[in-house]
């Protein structure tokens, strides 16, 4: 059994992520000649679906005034639309490239010789790499006067931006770029990189466009786009978030961790994410508020590890007292309140409970204990709560 102790001289202590499943996933791969040798080897439940070309397709839902989207394949009639949690665009190792241009406009590819991965924006480029070539489309957005145009044009337009980029297998690697090359010049349109200010793509409602999509690392990416447009009827801008998945040399979507329970859940609820990750703050035997109660004690008794309290008066005399919440019904915990005039001696005696325990929710009960000797009758008094876990 492990014990932690609370000492106090004149102390009164008052204690007041989206996971996809294999059976739901279509792995979209290229069907050009030779590409089959580079298909991922998937397990039961994953379905490989050959397709030379895939669009990120936006759909307008007038009933709830929102956009949805996902991958739309072009390998059958009518085209198949997959929702954001139903398909992955897979990029095999043949999509690897190395930077060869010394022109500064290609700095986003990394240093000379650095490796990157990309989905090409045309069928011919895809044929040499055995990869899908990708487009952006708004075939589900009507060009019927629902949305305003750009400038003098009255033709409806929507806009794509990148809201977030997550590499689910390598969280530190999130570089993503969507760009085209016109007359030898790079036109950067979709990225979170602040070095490239043009990070929005305008598209004709019911239209279609192509971009090269470049990634700086392998992994399973979840990229969330924001799709927005302005309604003609109200001049109101409407927008929605559309997540999609890209597997760069991997088809496996990592499982999200199970929800924290017990002490781990309490730690996450009691501290900031930075503090919770710092064992010098959130460790079992740490006392961040300096009130003498270590975190295991705070957890066991329903305390607040960030707040320290002092002193209590009882029945006309000032006694050192402790009021705390203890977990009810957890037989793996042993909780004892004790007092003494000399914390270095063995003369700790069981403290006196004041009144009955008061239920607090379904997990705790609040109790008060006082020292056996009044403050006026002793030069010093100390109390402790001993918490043990069997």
Can you lay out the helices and strands and say which pair or pack?
Elements: E1 2-4, E2 12-14, E3 26-29, E4 47-50, E5 53-61, E6 66-73, E7 81-82, E8 87-91, E9 96-98, E10 115-119, H1 123-129, E11 133-140, E12 157-167, E13 176-182, E14 185-191, E15 200-204, E16 208-210, E17 212-215, E18 219-230, E19 237-248, H2 262-270, H3 273-277, H4 279-282, H5 295-301, E20 313-314, E21 317-318, E22 321-327, E23 333-340, E24 349-350, E25 352-360, E26 364-370, E27 382-389
Parallel strand pairs: 2-22, 3-4, 3-8, 5-11, 8-19
Antiparallel strand pairs: 1-27, 5-6, 6-7, 9-10, 10-17, 11-16, 12-15, 12-18, 13-14, 13-17, 18-19, 20-21, 22-26, 23-24, 23-27, 25-26
Describe the structure.
This protein is mainly beta and 390 residues long. The protein folds into two domains: 2-16 and 260-389, no CATH class; 22-248, no CATH class. The protein has five helices and 27 strands. The protein has helices at residues 123-129, 262-270, 273-277, 279-282, 295-301; strands spanning 2-4, 12-14, 26-29, 47-50, 53-61, 66-73, 81-82, 87-91, 96-98, 115-119, 133-140, 157-167, 176-182, 185-191, 200-204, 208-210, 212-215, 219-230, 237-248, 313-314, 317-318, 321-327, 333-340, 349-350, 352-360, 364-370, 382-389. The strands form six sheets. It has a seven-stranded mixed beta sheet with strand order 4-3-8-19-18-12-15, with no helix packed on it. Strands 7-6-5-11-16 form a five-stranded mixed beta sheet.
